[in-house]
Structures are given as C-alpha cells and as structure tokens.
Amino acid sequence: MVSAEISRSWLLVNGSHSEEFDAAAATKADQIVLDIEDAVDPSQKSAARDEVAKWLETKQAWVRINDRSSDFWSDDIDQLRDIPGLLGVMLAKTEDGSHVTETFDRLGGRTRVLALVESALGIEEAREIACARGAFRLAFGSGDYRRDTGTSVEDIAMAYPRSRLVVASRIGNIPGPIDGPTVGTSYGILREKSEHAVALGMTGKLCLHHDQIPVINEAISPTQSDVAWARTFLADFEARGRVVRDGSDLPRLGRAEKIEKLAVAFGINPS
C-alpha cells in the first residue's frame, strides 16, 4: 500500500454495504475510505458503524466519520477508537481547527485525522485547520462546497478554494491536499479534472468507483518523461560534485528529488 502521505486515489465505499468492503480492498486504490457519513441514512448509521468496526478487526481502512457538530460524532469516536485496522479518520465538514484537535484527542492522540473541508467557512479557516494539532492532511468536499456557495463546477470558479487548501497545507507543513470526486463516467473528463487539480498543487483525489482508480493514479503520478528528466538531472548533479552553477539549480534539484521519490513509491520507470 502506498503511504497515506502521498496517496493519490482515495476510494469512498458506502459503510452500509459491507459486502463491498473486501472487493474495494482488492482494488488498486492507494487508500479506501469506509463512509459512515453522507453515504448512510441516519436511521442506518448505527448498523453501518457496527459493520465497519467488525470488518476493521481483521482488515485495514480509513473511515469517514460524521462531523463534530452532529449527533453521531461522539458515537463514531467511541466505537472506532483502538480498533486495530483503523488507519485514520476523515472528519466530515471540518470548519475549525478545534474540530480536528478534539477528534484527535478523543481517539487517543495517535490516530491520523484527515480534515474534509466542505463549506465557505471551512475554506476561510483552512489555514487554522491545517495547522491544528492532529491534522494529517486536508481534503476538498467539492460537491458540498458548491451547494453551500452556489459556485459552478467550472475550473475557474473552483480554483480559489482548491488553491486555499494547497497554500494552507504548505503553511501547516502537511502533505498536499486531496481533491474532491469527479461525478460521471467520462474518463476524459476525469483525467482533465485530475490534471487540473495537480496543476494547482493538489496531490490526491477522492473517487467514487473502482473504474476511476487507474485514471487518477496515472494522472497524479509523474510521467515517464518527468522521471527520465529527474534522473538525468540528479545523475549530472552528482557527477559534478553537487556544485550549484546558477540560481535555477536548487529549484530544479528540489523538483527532481520530489519526482524521484514519487517514482520509486509508485513504481514508475522510463521505458
């Protein structure tokens, strides 16, 4: 499994559909997220939580839990705490850094908290959320954000909130943020949206179906030509004794080292 710090594809799985958990775990998704929040009717949340907790006794996954202000948050925390297979929680509708820290503390101060930002207030408070104790990474709840603000789905309209999350993540010294899902069956649109998110500095993407995983993983990974350039640059830099020739060398070195790290993690080799 790819480290969660650099994971590209995050597959959301309905927490009420326990029969799908094993199949999801067998996909090429970097991470799977069992969803006991928006995907589950309120009347079924307790049963879904039971199924998720039972599965996590022997398997591993993230869990999207209900938001801090909901009536379900405390029960989610109490039941999931100390379950061996819990890799971390995705905290829905995060709007304040205290939501992250309270969740982190209630989980024992060891479980990673991925803050899902889904509203105008959440975007406004993104820096505080990213800097909160216990914050592991940010994710963008793009659908709920559009519903909250009336923003269209167009890239130019959504560039601001995405960029806010990127900048906040850098200030908080946490990994790059995860983009929201792309709805639909067009792989061309999915690739375009994934590449646009990468261009803005995002480093992962939520997905709703296993068919989307290969497209997301490829679009967010360095290309073979990127890797070839990085390895050529690094070899040349080492051959000249790591001597800096001009002001562009250090930025290029940083980019090359990042590409090489990702290439190794994702198994990418130029043909």
TrEMBL record:
It comes from the Bacteria. Mg(2+) binds at E118, D144. Keywords: Lyase, Magnesium, Metal-binding. GO terms for biological process: oxaloacetate metabolic process. It is an enzyme of class 4 (lyase). Residues 8-209 form the HpcH/HpaI aldolase/citrate lyase domain. Coiled coil: none annotated. GO terms for molecular function: lyase activity; magnesium ion binding. InterPro entries: Aldolase/citrate-lyase_domain, Citrate_lyase_beta/mcl1/mcl2, Pyrv/PenolPyrv_kinase-like_dom, Pyrv_kinase-like_dom_sf. Transmembrane segments: none annotated. Pfam families: HpcH_HpaI. Its cofactor is Mg(2+). Its EC number is 4.1.3.24. Substrate binds at R64, E118. This is Malyl-CoA lyase. It comes from Aurantimicrobium photophilum.
